Amino acid sequence: MKTPTLSYRVGYQPWLKENPDSTLIKYNMRDEKSWQPYVKQLDEYLKKYSDTNGTRECGPNDNNSNLVEDDVLPCRFDLSNFTAAGCGPDKQYGYGRAGSPCVVLSLNRLIGWQPVDYAPDSVPENVKGRYKSGSIALYCDGANNPDKEHIGRLKYIPEHGIDGRYYPYVYVPNYHQPIAMVKFESLPRNKLVLVECRAYALNIEHDITSRLGLVHFELFLEDKIVETKPSAL
């Protein structure tokens, strides 16, 4: 029997609402005004996870599979692993002078969907070293050969990707959508890098034309002295 595939897209944050058609994340490390909008957008996006009412703490062997049948509370999503990796609000999510921006990756919501595991001998090479049964592995790289050369070191948080404990997605109050982050640790300065990130599970389809199972965005990290205007006498 053919495995049903996910025909939805991968999402990313920060995505600025005031410029909805742009997939460019661009800021000057030396200019707080240029990177604060991204920090504020991530603050806004992540604040829903601070509301733990109507959720439960789930252990490593727990999951959301019995939400409907047993009328239990959804699993609470913990952001502490992002903070520990330098992708929390205390470090401005890696923006600013750190020069190592963190980008949130998620799957668009599809009620009832949950990942299907690869057989041990069929895990894609891109994620083989980090793949964990039950979860959704992520892999980001430059979209083109020059971008692959410049993308630098990446850190996936958590390493195995989006935690499968939080699936299936169910439409219940205060469901915490699972997310992961990728930290771009050594981006070049003053150079545009086109990024492609893919999500991996047996039932996730990839199609470049329709952007299924993947997402594209651009990163441009400036390092320029900000000229200050002399004060009027």
Automatic annotation (TrEMBL):
Q: Does the keyword ATP-binding apply?
A: no
Query: Keywords in UniProt for this one?
Result: Membrane, Signal-anchor, Transmembrane, Transmembrane helix
Q: Which GO terms describe its molecular function?
A: ATPase activator activity
Topology with respect to the bilayer: Single-pass type II membrane protein
Q: Which compartments is it annotated to reside in?
A: Membrane
- Classification via Gene3D superfamilies: Na, k-atpase alpha subunit
UniProt keyword Transmembrane helix, yes or no: yes
Database matches in Pfam families: Na_K-ATPase
Q: Which GO terms describe its cellular component?
A: sodium:potassium-exchanging ATPase complex
Q: What InterPro entries has UniProt attached to this entry?
A: Na/K_ATPase_sub_beta, Na/K_ATPase_sub_beta_sf
Q: Which GO terms describe its biological process?
A: intracellular potassium ion homeostasis; intracellular sodium ion homeostasis; potassium ion import across plasma membrane; sodium ion export across plasma membrane
Q: Which residues form a coiled coil?
A: none
Member of which family? Belongs to the X(+)/potassium ATPases subunit beta family.
Please state what the protein is called: Sodium/potassium-transporting ATPase subunit beta
| Organism per entry | Nippostrongylus brasiliensis
